[in-house]
Amino acid sequence: MDLRFYIDPETAQPHIYNHGVVEEEVRQVMVLPGQDYPAARNTRMKLGQTGAGRYLQVVYVPDKGGEGAFVITACELKGKALKSYRRQQRRKPR
After folding, report:
1. In 3D, which of 57, 52, 68, 88 has the Cα closest to residue 1?
2. Do residues 55 and 85 touch, judged by C-beta distance below 8 A?
3. Which has more confidence, 94 or 62?
4. Which of 35, 49, 63, 74 would bridge 21 by S-S if both were Cys, CB 3.0 to 4.6 A apart?
5. pLDDT tens-digit series, residues 24-65
6. DSSP readout, the chain?
7. Rg, C-alpha atoms of the chain
8. Using an 8 Å Cβ cutoff, are 30 and 69 in contact?
């Protein structure tokens, strides 16, 4: 999957760095199974777990061809959001 990242104009680095997330973690969440929801203004939100076990929320805009995405931001799932995600994962039929 081809991923492009929003670059923060103040730091000239991907915005995800502001949240303690690196590109490889985002790639893992986007490729591995998880939950994918529509979000505001043509964006989507993907919730998932990295290979190391970290839970992330990724906000992105999918490419029209479906081959890639423009990642706007990503952050770690915590608190009620993490609890809800885990509960929904347990309820999924396997």
Report:
1. 68
2. yes
3. 62
4. 74
5. 999 999 998 889 999 888 899 999 999 999 999 999 999 988
6. -EEEEPEETTTTEEGGGGGT--HHHHHHHHHS-EEEEE-STT-EEEEEE-TTS-EEEEEEEE-TTSSEEEEEEEEE--HHHHHHHHHHHHHS--
7. 13
8. yes
